[in-house]
Amino acid sequence: MLLDVRDLQVEFHTREGVAKAVNGVSYSVDAGETLAVLGESGSGKSVTAQAVMGILDTPPGHITGGQILFEGRDLLPLKEDRRRKVRGAEMAMIFQDALSSLNPVLTVGDQLGEMFTVHRGMSRKDAKAKAVELMDRVRIPAAAERVNQYPHQFSGGMRQRIMIAMAMALEPKLIIADEPTTALDVTVQAQVMELLAELQREYNMGLILITHDLGVVADVADKIAVMYAGRIVETAPVDDIYRAPAHPYTRGLLDSIPRLDQKGRELYAIKGLPPNLLAIPPGCAFHPRCPQAREVCRTDVPPLYEVDPRRRSACHFWKETLDGPR
Ligand code: SF4
Ligand code: MG
Fold first, then answer.
1. Which residues in the chain show pLDDT less than 70?
2. Most distant CA atoms of the chain, gap in Å
3. Ligand sitting nearest the alpha carbon of 96
4. Which of 92, 96, 184, 200 is buried most deeply by CB count within 10 Å?
5. Where are the alpha helices (H) located in 55-181, listed in sequence order?
6. What are the start-end ranges of the E strands in 165-272?
7. According to the model, what pLDDT value does residue 264 have?
8. How far apart are CA 174 and CA 161, in angstroms?
9. 284: CA distance to ligand 2 center in Å?
10. What's the CA-to-centroid distance between 294 and ligand 2, angstroms?
11. What residues line ligand 1, using a CB cutoff of 6 Å?
């Protein structure tokens, strides 16, 4: 197993109290595999990823439990200098907002080249050649000329390709992409997603795609973990989730995807808002928003029930949801 996150716990200490941002999350990704982590903002999906990357454990965030095994070795006890080497060389992250992740006063060639001068000790000239090669690989047209341009001279989609090139530069084993296409329009979204999937296959990398939009990951993910209020509520192979979700929250997310065959129909939206992490509802955290909630849901936290060997749901009534009308 490439990455194995086990029972991760992350807390945020705020003036109002302690927020449990991640509460016992476990997931895994193998080489060549794509895991989509799905959820609304505040579900803990980004925080979990930041913990994996080792860019989280500074106040107010604290990792208070669990393990993050990378190729079998727990990363959490590592000192920051060791951790920094893992980050970049072995795992890399792509963020939503390329413009604020890139340095506006350096050419993209200099920024890409820096990966090779700093981490690989290359000369500036060789690093520049590598930068052009990378830009070619992420299909930026006229790379040899554009390597000397600044981030603002590129479109949003092209900038996101540059971010992918940066992440790929040292050929990491794992890439985590946090809402990589959210800021882009729909056609560009699909192209960028395709590029990521293609590079992932070519290099046999593990890929974690973090998104609030089940629609964008359908074609590229192998499996999905759905998060709500700091926990995983459903995990399954992607096709199973689309065929029949086993958790009412997943069903709500599925029903909120616009569908071409249902144009004109009013789009479903899950009622209410995700909970305040300082006041997570007792029992099933989803119960105030769940159309299927019963009395027991208010008091008993549902465990992750095994639906089948590849699939789990944290709903007391998963069977009903699974068999319910589509
Ligand atoms: Fe809904 Fe109850 Fe299932 Fe939670 S446990 S998702 S409230 S039916
Ligand atoms: Mg986020």
1. 57, 259-267, 325-326
2. 68
3. 2
4. 92
5. 80-89, 98-101, 108-120, 124-137, 143-146, 156-168
6. 174-178, 206-211, 223-228, 231-237
7. 61
8. 17
9. 22
10. 31
11. 247-248, 284, 286-287, 290, 292-293, 297, 302, 315-317
DSSP, collapsed to helix, strand or coil, labels residue 1 as coil
Q: What is the pLDDT of residue 261?
A: 65
DSSP per position, 2-49: -EEEEEEEEEEEETTEEEEEEEEEEEEE-TT-EEEEE--TTSSHHHHH
Residue carrying structure tokens 């341009």: 149
So what's the pLDDT on residue 214? 84
β-pair type (34-38, 223-228): parallel
Please report, for the chain, the start and end positions of each structural domain, with discontinuous segments joined by +: 229-326
Nearest-10 crossing angle of helices 156-168, 108-120: 10
Q: Which pTM does this prediction carry?
A: 0.93
**Distance from the Cα of residue 257 to its chain's centroid:** 18
Minimum-distance ligand to the CA of 270? 1
Cα gap 166→126, rounded to integer Å = 16
Mutate to test the pocket of ligand 1, among 251, 300, 316 (most ligand atoms within 8 A of CB): 316
Residue 225 · residue 37 · CB < 8 Å: yes
Model ipTM value = 0.95
Task: Tell me what pLDDT residue 262 has.
Answer: 63
- pLDDT at position 326 is 58
Contacts of residue 5, defined as CB under 8 A and 6 or more positions apart, other chains included, come to 25, 26, 27, 28, 48, 52, 66, 67, 68, 69
Q: Which amino acid is at 11?
A: E
